[in-house]
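Budget justification aside, the reviewers requested a transparent look at the raw inputs and outputs of the sequence design task funded under Objective 1. We therefore reproduce one unedited record. The lines immediately below are the structure tokens for a 668-residue chain.
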């Protein structure tokens, strides 16, 4: 016989100020199979949990319902409580009367209370159909993969490796370092970015537990937490890494030229190149699109080959092809970083039309000692020192019509930093910054902003820039000063656009390959904004850095460390518990149509061939099979299955229909 205990939580005033919790408890006392029903102010507290444990013993309860907040917050809390009371943790059900009642029906107390009673009755009806479930176990491959070799990936890999685990860094470009390698100084301390980053790069490359896989891309991810099978494509470098010594002779002799992406196309580089002087690995790669030999081969000729002739180690290999291989990992950290907003959509700003309208990252390369101008701040058009510089913030940020609705977080600070660098390098240069709002959410950030204005004399103008156009050798910047309520026109030598941070252009594709979620803007989605900021909904895959949303370097490093801790916790176990709330396929009902295979977002279902005896004959047919370790219990297969062969443990058709019946009885 089902003996259900119902416990209604006030959640302080979160629920209690709208829902009459005492009335909910009173109504449920007379509901079938309910033998005990009470309300309490804080059910998740220790006294509240003790109340449940004592009631289980005193009233011989074999099922428990808690009416409180979202199961995402405290379902595991109450499952553990029920287990400590001697019950199977899945003989528990939760009714969400906070988010579903009090928070959405504030000011409508009677309606909210009535709805809470309905939800409680539905939970009781479902828990009466619950069955005892047991968690399974799966082995763990004690090795991790970090996708992305920027500061987030490097930090996560080092933290994992320093705890004794093997870790691979997969980087699509020829060198690790990421965007931080392109930056000159960091705010608010104005430390040299390379001085901070390069030692970490060297440490990662020389660490005995870290393997660098550069100039390679993720092709496929299969498997499940603790046992991922990852297919990697290592792109042809046309250079034998085992022979190359990194002497650089080939680069000095190469006649082929291409735009230098690392220096934001402000100069040319040879066709065989390393991205920057501190690159790791410091061995070149041939850009086949600009290499004269590869270009001539397309025309049926075969010319040049100078790099092979001058290489003392014989490391040049024009016949090298992409290599595809599979590696096995227990956990994956996604640290793919961010990209720059394409501000050419703001045609009125003249980016791409006027060479002296540049982005913030362009400026970083101009001011960097290893950049195209050796650290001299000059105009790209004529290499003259600018006397007036205008900076425009929020280009693409906080603009849902043309750009992105979110704040990119770093623009206010890096604009202030760049303004101080201009004043340091060119004391006579006047700097203006157009802004919407100034946001400085970090330790020492507001002080840095104030110093930019007060000590460096940078003039902040609150307002939007409406148009930028050329007049002779100078740029006319038209905007408004919304504080003074008047138009502004500035004659500038150079304009710097603080453009938005956006996800990598293939972020959605990467999310689909790995099997994680992403939002409308393309940022990878965390499991929970507050309680699971580095986890994803796919167990064993974690997030680090700006792939999850705009971040500065300190926040990126902090999140990378947090992701590493989660990975180490996972890899420290010999076996992992698997959630029993997974789908099952009844082979007797399965028609083998395969619709569930296509709809499963976690690639947990496959078709297999079985043999059956019918009418004295052996026949073969296909049926669907669920990998319980991969299944996340989303239920997509159960609603897709036309033959009703798929059922989701803990959310079976019988349980859902029991809830519907309970609700219909209330309505009728």
């Amino acid at each position: 016989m089902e003996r259900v205990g119902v416990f209604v939580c006030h959640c302080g005033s979160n629920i209690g100020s709208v829902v009459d919790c005492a009335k909910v408890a009173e109504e449920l006392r007379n509901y079938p199979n309910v033998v005990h029903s009470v309300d309490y102010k804080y059910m998740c507290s220790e006294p509240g949990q003790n109340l449940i444990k004592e009631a289980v013993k005193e009233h011989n309860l074999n099922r428990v319902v808690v009416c409180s907040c979202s199961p995402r917050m405290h379902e595991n809390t109450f499952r553990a409580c029920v287990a400590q009371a001697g019950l199977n943790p899945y003989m528990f059900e939760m009714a969400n009367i906070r988010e579903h009642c009090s928070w959405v029906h504030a000011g409508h107390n009677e309606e909210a209370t009535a709805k809470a009673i309905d939800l409680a009755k539905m939970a009781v009806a479902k828990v009466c159909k619950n069955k005892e479930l047991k968690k399974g176990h799966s082995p763990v491959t004690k090795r991790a993969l970090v996708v992305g070799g920027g500061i987030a990936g490097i930090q996560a890999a080092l933290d994992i490796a320093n705890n004794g685990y093997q870790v691979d860094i997969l980087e699509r470009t020829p060198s690790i370092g990421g965007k931080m390698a392109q930056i000159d100084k960091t705010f608010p301390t104005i430390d040299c970015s390379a001085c901070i980053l390069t030692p970490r790069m060297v440490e990662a490359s020389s660490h005995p537990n870290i393997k660098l896989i550069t100039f390679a891309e993720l092709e496929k991810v299969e498997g499940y937490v603790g046992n991922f099978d990852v297919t990697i494509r290592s792109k042809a470098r046309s250079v034998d890494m085992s022979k190359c010594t990194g002497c650089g002779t080939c680069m000095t002799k190469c006649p082929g030229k291409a735009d230098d992406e690392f220096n934001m196309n402000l100069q040319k580089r040879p066709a065989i190149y390393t991205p920057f002087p501190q690159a790791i690995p410091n061995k070149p790669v041939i850009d086949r699109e600009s290499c004269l030999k590869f270009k001539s081969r397309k025309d049926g000729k075969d010319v040049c080959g100078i790099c092979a002739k001058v290489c003392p180690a014989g490391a040049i290999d024009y016949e090298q092809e992409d290599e595809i291989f599979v590696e096995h990992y227990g956990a994956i950290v996604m640290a793919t970083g961010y990209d720059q907003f394409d501000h050419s959509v703001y045609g009125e700003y003249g980016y791409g039309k006027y060479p002296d309208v540049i982005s913030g990252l362009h400026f970083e390369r101009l001011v960097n000692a290893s950049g195209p101008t050796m650290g001299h701040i000059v105009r790209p058009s004529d290499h003259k020192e600018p006397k007036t510089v205008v900076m425009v913030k929020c280009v693409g940020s906080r603009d849902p019509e043309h750009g992105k609705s979110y704040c990119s977080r770093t623009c206010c600070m890096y604009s202030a930093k760049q303004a101080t660098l201009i004043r340091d390098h060119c004391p006579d240069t006047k700097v203006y910054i157009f802004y919407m709002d100034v946001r400085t959410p970090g330790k020492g950030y507001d002080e840095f902003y104030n110093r930019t204005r007060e000590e460096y004399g940078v003039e902040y103008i609150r307002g939007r820039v409406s148009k930028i156009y050329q007049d002779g050798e100078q740029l006319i910047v038209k905007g408004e000063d919304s504080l003074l309520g008047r138009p502004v026109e500035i004659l500038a030598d150079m304009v710097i656009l603080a453009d938005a941070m956006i996800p990598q252009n293939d972020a959605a594709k990467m999310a689909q390959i790995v099997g994680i979620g992403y939002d409308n803007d393309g940022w990878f989605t965390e499991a929970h904004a507050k309680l699971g900021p580095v986890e994803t909904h796919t167990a064993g895959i974690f997030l680090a850095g700006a792939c999850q949303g705009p971040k500065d370097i300190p926040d990126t490093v902090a999140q990378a460390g947090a992701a590493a801790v989660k990975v180490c916790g996972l890899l420290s176990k010999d076996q992992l518990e698997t959630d029993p709330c997974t789908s099952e396929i009844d082979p007797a009902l399965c028609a083998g149509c395969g619709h569930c295979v296509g709809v499963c977002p976690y690639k947990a279902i496959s078709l297999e061939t079985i043999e059956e005896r019918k009418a004295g004959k052996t026949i073969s047919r296909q049926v669907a099979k669920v990998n319980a370790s991969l299944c996340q219990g989303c239920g997509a297969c159960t609603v897709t299955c036309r033959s009703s062969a798929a059922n989701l443990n803990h959310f079976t058709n019988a349980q859902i229909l029991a809830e519907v019946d309970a609700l219909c009885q209330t309505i009728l």
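The chain has a mean pLDDT of 94. The first strand starts at residue 4 and ends at 9. Computational costs for records of this kind are itemized in the attached budget.
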